[in-house]
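Inverse folding, one chain.
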């Protein structure tokens, strides 16, 4: 069957409300005066889909969303970006979150966990059909996606996932960590990133494990060898870290599917992640292929 999709993104569709606060953590007060509170479509799966699409990869996104205003925002985002979207009805409504963003760009996300139900699933036949014409699947860390992992594996596509700020102990993340060929995670909650990365590689299928560490760069584990990926100086002032990890993953996957070696893929990721930090959370903006390649081929900005 001919390949029609380079990256099939599963899960992670939703809507965020962005609130810029004077500091994080936010001290208790009866009220705060803040700038305009904006709501926009774009959670982790949306940002990965936008990221790989902007880099020239044929993209398809599938997730559960509700028949509500938030769901229409998600649909509109995909229409505007030209990203094919297979929507599965979610009775609990579209996923939502509130992001508190401090002056230094740090983010605190408050996720509404009432949207999903234990019985939510992505239809197996639909996932099979999409995976059969895909090169790669990126699986978001949302409940229904865990049940799609065996289907993806049976179809023979390579798999990536992002564990976000996993602490290395929460059991929920393990199904994703040990089934993916490429594993992204943040080093934020890890006391020993190398230990966790090596455990993922030893217990699972991962050929590459990447732990991002913000301004300190990232750690890359490939074939048992751990290396450091230098941070990249953002091309403009840092205003928001929202979406930086998704941008890193998108650019890494672009490199991977273009046949680049892991270090080059990780450099792509560092450049895209740095760019994302210059984009306000109220905008759904991602780096273009031309800009990524121009920055990657220029002198390192460390």
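Residues assigned per position:
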């Amino acid at each position: 069957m001919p390949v029609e999709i380079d990256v099939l993104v599963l899960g992670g569709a939703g809507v965020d409300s962005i609130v810029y606060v004077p500091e994080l953590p936010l001290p208790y007060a009866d009220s705060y005066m803040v700038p305009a509170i904006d709501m926009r479509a774009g959670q982790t799966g949306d940002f990965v889909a936008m990221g790989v699409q902007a880099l020239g990869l044929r993209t398809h996104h599938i997730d559960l969303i509700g028949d509500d205003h938030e769901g229409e925002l998600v649909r509109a985002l995909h229409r505007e970006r030209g990203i094919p979207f297979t929507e599965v009805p979610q009775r609990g409504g579209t996923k939502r979150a509130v992001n508190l963003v401090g002056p230094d760009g740090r983010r605190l996300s408050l996720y509404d966990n009432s949207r999903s139900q234990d019985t939510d699933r992505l239809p197996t036949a639909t996932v099979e059909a999409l995976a059969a014409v895909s090169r790669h699947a990126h699986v978001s860390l949302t409940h229904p996606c865990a049940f799609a992992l065996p289907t993806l594996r049976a179809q023979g596509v390579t798999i990536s996932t992002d564990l976000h700020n996993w602490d290395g102990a929460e059991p929920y993340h393990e199904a994703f960590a040990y089934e993916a060929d490429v594993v992204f995670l943040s080093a934020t909650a890890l006391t020993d990133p190398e230990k966790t990365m090596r455990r993922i590689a030893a217990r699972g299928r991962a050929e590459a494990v990447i732990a991002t560490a913000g301004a300190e760069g990232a750690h890359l584990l490939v074939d048992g060898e751990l290396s450091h990926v230098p941070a990249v100086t953002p091309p403009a002032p840092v205003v928001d870290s929202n979406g930086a990890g998704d941008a890193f993953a998108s650019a890494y996957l672009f490199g991977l599917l273009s046949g680049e070696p892991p270090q080059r893929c990780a450099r792509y990721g560092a450049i895209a992640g740095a760019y994302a930090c210059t984009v306000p959370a109220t905008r759904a903006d991602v780096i273009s292929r031309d800009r990524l390649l121009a920055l990657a081929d220029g002198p390192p900005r460390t």
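Residues 262-276 form the longest helix (15 residues). The mean pLDDT is 93.
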